[in-house]
Design goal:
alpha/beta, Rossmann fold, 2 domains, 6-stranded antiparallel barrel, L-fucose Isomerase, Chain A, domain 3
C-alpha cells in the first residue's frame, strides 16, 4: 500500500472465515464503552459547518482477537491520521468520530444523533472484516460514504457494499482505495448536499470521482504461457471418479457432490490419529527440505515447522486411505479449539505443488473449484484467496496464507516462497509465495447452489509484502470493468480461486458440458 495513513504496521460452510471471526471477534470486543477510545474522540467540535459523523466499524481501538489486519493491531494512529488528513484538506466540513463494534453501538450513535440533530452525513469506515455497522447508519437516509480500510475491513466491505449496489441504495456511495486523496475527494462530495443537491446527487458524485480517479487499463497482454487443457468431456469424466475429504467437526458421513466430485466427511479425531502416528523421520525430512527451500523463515520455530510437516504426512496417509485427491479442513476453528495441532497451511502448499488439493476453511465450493481447475489444466494448482479491490491502482489483490509455488504445475518452474506465522493470530506456520508476474490469470468459483461459475481474468503485476492480512498477496489488473467487480460479492461468498493461464474457452466448454452458466464478474 502506498498511502501514508494506510501503511501503519502495528482475513455456506460451518465456521468459514467470516463465521469464525464474527463469533470469536465481535463477542470479545464488548460494548462501545470498552473500546478504549482515544482522547480525540471527545474533543470539542466547532459549529456552523457541514457536520459529518465518522463511524469506525471495528472490534476495539487495539484489536483483541484474530481477524484482519491481525491480532494486536493498533488502530488509534491510523484513525488519528485519517482524522487529521480530513480536517486539514476538507475545509468547510467538521468531523465527529465514533467507534462501533456492531449494530447495538451503531443504533446508539444514530439515535443520539437524531435527538441532537445537526448531522449532515455519515462516513462509515470498515476497519475490521464483519462488524455490521454500515447497515444501521445507512437507514438514516442521510448521505453515507462507505470506505474500506484495505487489508482490514475488505471482506465485509465487499460483501456489504455489493448488497447496497444490488439494491440500488439511494444514499450510499463508496471508496475503496489505498490513496488517501481518493478518500478526501469523495468526502468533499458531502458539501454538494449542503449546497442544495440531493442525496442521490451525492452518490452520483462519488461514483463519477471514483471512475475518473481510477487509472486507465494498462497493457493486459500476458507473457507467453503454454497451457494445454483437457477436453471438457474428459475433464467431467475424471471429476466423476474424484473425491475430496472434508473435516469440520467430529462427525463422519457423505456430503452432496459438486460437479460430479464426491465429498466424504471425516472427523477431527481421524485426522489427529493420523497426525499422532505419522512417521517422525518422514516429517523431519519434509521440515528439513522446507528449511532449505524457503527464501526465509521468520518467527516460526523448529517445533512448529515439524508439526506442520507432520500434518502434511498425516494428510497424505488419509488421502491414500480414502482414495481422495484433496482435503479441506476447518483450519481456523480446528486450530483455535485445539482439535488440530498445527495449521495445515504448509501441508496445503505441498499438496498443491504435487497436483493434489489442499483447500482452506472447510470451503467445499473452493476445494471443488481447485480440483476442477487442476484437472482441466492437467495439474496447475488453484490459489484460493480473499480478494481486495484497490481503485487507486486499478487492482484486485488475491490474499491468503496458503499458496503453491509451482503455479504452472508439478513439473513447472518454481517461484520463491517464505515461511511466516499465520497472519491473523501470529501463530503456527503459513506461506508467502512470491508469485510470477506478467502472466494472465483466470479466477473462478464454482457455485453449486446456483449451478453457475463466477469468472474473471486479470494480469498478475506484483506481490504486496504488507504485513497486514494474509501473507500471500498477488496484485493483478482486471481484464474488463473493475466497477462491475464491486457488484459480485453478495452471493457465493468472499473466496475466489485463481489459476495461471487463459482458461476462458475451456471454462465455457466445461460449463456447457455440466449444464451450468458462466457469470462474468468484470
Amino acid at each position: 500500500m502506498t498511502s501514508s495513513f494506510l501503511s501503519s504496521r502495528c482475513a455456506g460452510c460451518p465456521l468459514r472465515r467470516r463465521d469464525f471471526l464474527r463469533q470469536g471477534g465481535i463477542a470479545a470486543a464488548g460494548a462501545l464503552g470498552a473500546l478504549a477510545a482515544p482522547r480525540w474522540l471527545h474533543a470539542a467540535q466547532p459549529v456552523g459547518k457541514t457536520r459529518i459523523r465518522i463511524v469506525y466499524a471495528l472490534h476495539a481501538a487495539r484489536q483483541p482477537v484474530p481477524d484482519w489486519p491481525h491480532k494486536g493491531f493498533d488502530f488509534k494512529p491510523v484513525m488519528e491520521r485519517i482524522q487529521a488528513t480530513l480536517a486539514r484538506q476538507c475545509t468547510g466540513l467538521e468531523f465527529l468520530p465514533s467507534l462501533a463494534s456492531g449494530p447495538e453501538q451503531a443504533e446508539k450513535i444514530l439515535s443520539e444523533d437524531q435527538v441532537a440533530g445537526g448531522i449532515d452525513g455519515y462516513l462509515v469506515y470498515q476497519m475490521n472484516g464483519w462488524n455490521r455497522v454500515v447497515q444501521t447508519m445507512a437507514t438514516s437516509g442521510k448521505p453515507t460514504l462507505y470506505a474500506d480500510f484495505q487489508y482490514g475491513g475488505s471482506g465485509g466491505f465487499l460483501t456489504y457494499n455489493s448488497v447496497f449496489l444490488r439494491d440500488q441504495s439511494p444514499n450510499v456511495g463508496f471508496v475503496a482505495s489505498s490513496n488517501v486523496q481518493d478518500l478526501v475527494e469523495a468526502v468533499r462530495c458531502f458539501q454538494s448536499v449542503k449546497l442544495g443537491g440531493s442525496v442521490s446527487d451525492f452518490v452520483a458524485a462519488t461514483a463519477r470521482l471514483r471512475r475518473k480517479r481510477t487509472p486507465k487499463p494498462g497493457n493486459l497482454a500476458g507473457k507467453k504461457d503454454e497451457l494445454r487443457c483437457l477436453a471438457a468431456d474428459e475433464c467431467i469424466k475424471r471429476l466423476r471418479s474424484a473425491k475430496i475429504l472434508t473435516v469440520r467437526d467430529q462427525t463422519a458421513g457423505i456430503e452432496p457432490p459438486i460437479a460430479g466430485i464426491a465429498f466424504q466427511r471425516i472427523p477431527f479425531a481421524e485426522l489427529n490419529s493420523a497426525w499422532a502416528t505419522a512417521a517422525k523421520d518422514a516429517s523431519r525430512a519434509v521440515a528439513d527440505r522446507w528449511r532449505k527451500e524457503a527464501q526465509k523463515i521468520e518467527d516460526v520455530d523448529d517445533a512448529t515447522l515439524e508439526a506442520s510437516a507432520t500434518m502434511y504426512v498425516a494428510i497424505k496417509k488419509l488421502l491414500d486411505k480414502h482414495g481422495a485427491s484433496g482435503i479441506t479442513i476447518d483450519c481456523l476453528g480446528g486450530f483455535h479449539d485445539k482439535h488440530i495441532h498445527a495449521y495445515p497451511c504448509l501441508a496445503y502448499h505441498e499438496l498443491n505443488n504435487e497436483g493434489l488439493v489442499g483447500g482452506c476453511e472447510a470451503d467445499v465450493f473452493s476445494a471443488a473449484t481447485m480440483l476442477i481447475g487442476a484437472t482441466l489444466t492437467q495439474g496447475r494448482p488453484g490459489y484460493i484467496s480473499d480478494p481486495v479491490i484497490d481503485t487507486a491502482k486499478r487492482q484486485i489483490i488475491y490474499a491468503h496464507c496458503v499458496s503453491s509455488n509451482k503455479v504452472f504445475g508439478p513439473a513447472g518452474r518454481t517461484n520463491p516462497f517464505q515461511i511466516l506465522t499465520h497472519s491473523e493470530d501470529r501463530q503456527g506456520a503459513s506461506v508467502r509465495s512470491l508469485l510470477p508476474t506478467g502472466y494472465l490469470t483466470t479466477t473462478v468459483q464454482f457455485d453449486a447452489e446456483r449451478n453457475r461459475i463466477l469468472f474473471h481474468q486479470a494480469k498478475a503485476v506484483a506481490n504486496d509484502p504488507d504485513d497486514r492480512a494474509c501473507r500471500t498477496k498477488l496484485c493483478a489488473e482486471p481484464v474488463g470493468d473493475i466497477e462491475k467487480l464491486f457488484t459480485q460479492w453478495h452471493q457465493g461468498g468472499w473466496h475466489r480461486v485463481t489459476f495461471y493461464g487463459d482458461l476462458k474457452e475451456p471454462m465455457y466448454a466445461l460449463a456447457r458440458g455440466l449444464g451450468w452458466r458462466i457469470v462474468e464478474e468484470t
